[in-house]
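Example 3.2
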Amino acid sequence: MKKFLFSAAAFVAASSAFAGGYLTNTNQSAAYLRNPAQLATFDITGAYTNPAGLAWLGNGWHLAFNIQNAAQTRTILSTYAPFAYNSTQLGNINREFEGEATAPFIPSLDVAYQKGKWTASMHFGITGGGGKATFNNGLPMFESQVAYAHAAATQVINGFNELANKFNPILIGQGAHLPLLTPSNGYTLETYMKGRQYLFGLQMGLTYKIFDNLGDHKQGLSTYVGARMNFASNAYEGYMRNTNVNMPDNSQIPLPEYMKYAAANGENAASFANAMASQLPTLGPSIGLTPEQAQQTAAMLKEKAAQLQGAADALNAGATRLGRDIALDCNQKGWGIAPILGLDYRIGDLNIGMRYEFNTELNIENNTKLNTTGNASFADGVNTPNDVPSLLAIGAQYSILDKVRVMAGWNCYFDKNANMAGGKEKFIKHNTHEITIGAEYDILDRLTISGGFQNTDYGTTPDFQSDLSFHCDSYSLGFGAKMKVNDKVNVEASYFWTNYKDFTKEQASYNGTGIAGKDVYSRTNRAFGLGITYDF
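Structure, written as tokens:
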């Protein structure tokens, strides 16, 4: 039997609940939700997506305030033979674990002031993180350890009964017998996980208009230099407790006791098998065995004894670890700064925006109140790398008619160069790529409708994915409207929906248990947005 394992890893709220890379949220406004192709915009919300384009705002103050509501489900459908003994679904080796991630109020603020060729700007928002996530039934990586421990103990008991059934006819003739043991018919447990993960970003910078309306084609060029300070705030809480087994008489006993019961009888069975193996050469003829058969049976018994003894030792060790509740209560904080460069070029009705964000070196430090997981990475004061990868963003916007605009963009997140917890960046095939397209139509003088599409391609591999943090390739659709209240005020409303592609991870040794299994990861996501802009 494999060594019993329990790895708490990280009680992570999991991956981003929003659009973007592993640790980046690109949807910072209602404008983005109604049309994600925002990389060449020159509205005030470009303070995040295209800060160099702020050069074309016009003199004065410009303000935008946005709120979003995002909700996501994360589902893991696990196939693992020992799950068939879960008392809530006896006989079913498939088990579904569902978590709900919510971010009910996601604010963002953009402020810019332009005078002549210079524009100073600020953006504040939740630029990374997954909001809040709750798994009321835990995760398969945790329950599989309980399921395996129960299955291993039951296997030892069945192994004892197998020996008893085989040799009791012989022993009864000598006035002895091995009593049959009673195996459990299922297990129960209480598991729970809750996490919160936010990355707050404060970005400030300066935009400079190099030239405007140059030549017959009315060319313009501007640059941006700025930086974003990222502040991470995470909190994780969870437990696994009350692991019990159900007996045929409807009684319950703690799983550790059941494991010790199996281990003790496994040791007895091993001793019996060794004793029988030593006696068979002389006892064989009296029970109808040829010398060759007696020798073969003795060898089999010695092998069986070694297996039973090894299983008993592992069960005793596992029972000790399961003899206490496993729980975690940990907060994490950290911060880092990323320089940002931008460039915007316009010629006639075409505008092109570019932005490069440098890698944010970010380490998060534990403030741990409770940690009985046995995982040293959650010890109080431990630092874990959690870099926000660098990003190259390029977009274009073109007015095909006075009232119709089309736009497209491309994001590349340099994930392979970022330092991640556990060195997970080594298990990425390629950097994340994102393509966006969209269109806007001024259906009335005061009303604009828009829609857009986004495709996100992660470079994940099975070794990168885990129950605690998994990413699925996706495409998203957004639509909405902007209404001009007066010459200074605009309001926006939008909706954003994401469809994810399932990711299947197969393991020859499921979570280190030595038994094959697989997980199918899937997600759903939707977000609503409201925004207001004010120029004065």
